[in-house]
């Protein structure tokens, strides 16, 4: 019943080109029940909107070719509100829900949904990329959740994913629906 598991299952079936093995209509109806008044999505119906769950639901709906079920303007307004405009240290970063500090991982979770909906231009991408790069460990490599924290693999992956979606640097393009490199998806015949 958790939207994270719905995403994982639909992603895998999409990669295997086996989406006909599930009741797509029932899956879509469940995801729509997880949508909230603010446009965001939660893990289950009536759960708080959260950037990670927005990615799971929007990614699943995109793989199922059901994005028309999403009010993209309302959803992306909520996602735009996740960009931090407070203290300089966190300026431009994204958070997963109101009143939380920015975290590099939301450079993927929030931005991927915006990319799927073609609304990345609604945020300040230069400020976001600056935030991600501030979190890079210049001595040892890797990216952390916030400036001056220890780098880890999780935040490094999502920081690089965010930079890819922003088309910054020489990072290869990642498909926001599948969270995989576009060139590999083409190689296996998904794209």
UniProtKB/TrEMBL annotation:
UniProt keyword list: Metal-binding, Prenyltransferase, Repeat, Transferase, Zinc
One Pfam family, short name: Prenyltrans
Enzyme class: transferase
EC numbers for this chain: 2.5.1.60
CC cofactor: Zn(2+)
Listed GO MF terms: metal ion binding; Rab geranylgeranyltransferase activity
GO cellular component, one term: Rab-protein geranylgeranyltransferase complex
TM ranges: none
Family: Belongs to the protein prenyltransferase subunit beta family.
Protein's UniProt name: Geranylgeranyl transferase type-2 subunit beta
């Amino acid at each position: 019943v958790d939207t994270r598991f719905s995403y994982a299952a639909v992603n895998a079936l999409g990669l295997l080109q086996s989406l006909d093995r599930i009741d797509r209509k029932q899956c879509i109806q469940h995801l729509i029940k997880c949508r909230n008044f603010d446009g965001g999505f939660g893990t289950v119906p009536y759960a708080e909107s959260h950037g990670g769950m927005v990615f799971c639901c929007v990614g699943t709906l995109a793989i199922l070719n059901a994005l028309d079920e999403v009010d993209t303007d309302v959803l992306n307004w909520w996602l735009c509100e996740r960009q931090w405009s407070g203290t300089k240290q966190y300026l431009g970063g994204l958070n997963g829900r109101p009143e939380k500090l920015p975290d590099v991982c939301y450079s993927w979770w929030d931005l991927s949904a915006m990319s799927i909906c073609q609304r990345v231009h609604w945020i300040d991408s230069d400020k976001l990329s600056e935030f991600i790069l501030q979190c890079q460990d210049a001595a040892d490599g890797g990216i952390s959740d916030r400036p001056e924290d220890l780098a880890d693999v999780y935040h490094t992956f999502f920081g690089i994913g965010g930079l890819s979606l922003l088309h910054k640097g020489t990072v290869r393009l990642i498909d926001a629906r599948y969270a995989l490199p576009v060139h590999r998806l083409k190689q296996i015949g998904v794209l």
